[in-house]
Amino acid sequence: MTPRPRRILSGMQPSGRLHLGNYVGALANWVKLQETHECFYMAADWHAVSTNYAETAQIRPYTREMLIDWLAAGLDPRRSTIFVQSSVPEHAVLHLLLSMIVPVPWLERNPTYKEQQEQLASRDLTTYGFLGYPVLQSADILLYLADEVPVGHDQLPHLELTREIARRFNHLFAEVFPEPKPLLTEAPKLPGTDGRKMSKSYNNAIYLSDPEPTVREKLRTMVTDPARKRRSDPGNPDVCPVFALHNVFSPPTTIERVNADCRTAAIGCIDCKTLVADEIVGRLSPMWERRKALAADPAALDRVVGEGTERARSVARTTLASVNAAMHL
Of these four, 21, 60, 77, 238, which has the most CB atoms within 10 Å of its CB? Predict the structure, then answer.
């Protein structure tokens, strides 16, 4: 028998339109993984409630917008299972059962628990749901018996907790869960138009759904080397946010040319920005075309998510039956 492809589970919280940083940091990798893995991609709307429980009205429209971005970026429902977390109630059931066996100190040592409480000080995150969200995250992964999870280095502690929970369950009851391995991905830090990390909260993002004139205008006004005051001044690409975009989106010949010409003032900032704008527009153009097709058939998204939900629930039900049998429930 031919072994099945290794299975992965990954997801995003719906918090609005996706930007170029989301694309190069995760979404582009998801598209590539469709070639080599059995992929389950989840819109994690229950996770969004953990930090936005007082403002839930936007979660549903944000979820729909995010799913459109996924499909426009190249996720193929024929090769990936695309679904919404809250449409698969087995996530909540497994979360409940796993929460019975997870020691509280395991959750309190979560490195992001106190960090996010400090970063989101305006919200009361001293809730049971926020403390326990890593258990829900583990349930998301284990429910699909994922072999691997695409993560960055900063997410390794979260995945290790999932592995610990799997080991504890298997030791207490029966060997149900594989211990998912990290599928490490390098995610370049993409600068926004003001030079800081690209983020919706900084209002410095270039969105995947921005039309071409908006993309070009945002790049035209993007900050550059602060020491380069005049066109005739040599620049330093090493400190220029626009050159950081070249390193991600431009071919090597363009990167080499811009690197050399900027240092000798042979190229100005406007010309440099135009070159990277052309590359970014070229990357986004296929997404804009797919977005037009989705706009012309609004029910297409519902069909994709409906079919993905059925596939996800089929796997989830089978796993939960094994869990119940192991726990004598």
Answer: 21
Query: Which token pair is 295?
Result: 């706009």
The H or E element spanning position 244 is helix 241-249
Asked if pLDDT for residue 76 goes beyond 90, the answer is yes
The answer on pLDDT for 1 being more than 70 is no
Quote the CA–CA distance of 214 and 210 in Å, as a whole number. Answer: 6
Domains of the chain: 7-190+298-326 (3.40.50.620), 210-291 (1.10.240.10)
- The full DSSP string for 86-153 is GG-THHHHHHHHHHTT--HHHHHT-HHHHHHHHHTTTS---SHHHHTHHHHHHHHHHTTT-SEEEE-G
Q: Using an 8 Å Cβ cutoff, are 115 and 166 in contact?
A: no
Average of per-residue pLDDT across 151-175: 94
How far lies 61's CA from each of 13, 68, 151, 285, in Å?
12, 11, 26, 24
Token pair in block for residue 219: 């790049």
**What pLDDT digit, counting tens, does each position of 252-294 carry?**
999 999 999 999 999 999 999 999 999 999 999 999 999 999 9
Are 267 and 198 in contact, with CB atoms under 8 Å apart?
no
- CB–CB of 64/105 below 8 Å? no
For 117, other C-beta atoms within 10 Å of its C-beta total 15
Q: CA geometry: angle at 76 spanning 70 and 78, to 5°? A: 145
Highest mean pLDDT among 1-15, 117-131, 168-182: 168-182
DSSP 26-85: IIHHHHHHTTTSEEEEEE-HHHHHHHHTT--TTHHHHHHHHHHHHHHHT--TTTEEEEEG
Name 84's bridge partners. Answer: 43
User: From CA 139, how far away is CA 90, in angstroms rounded?
Assistant: 9
In sign, the C-alpha dihedral spanning 185, 112, 40, 73 is: negative
**Distance (Å, rounded) from C-alpha 265 to C-alpha 234?**
4
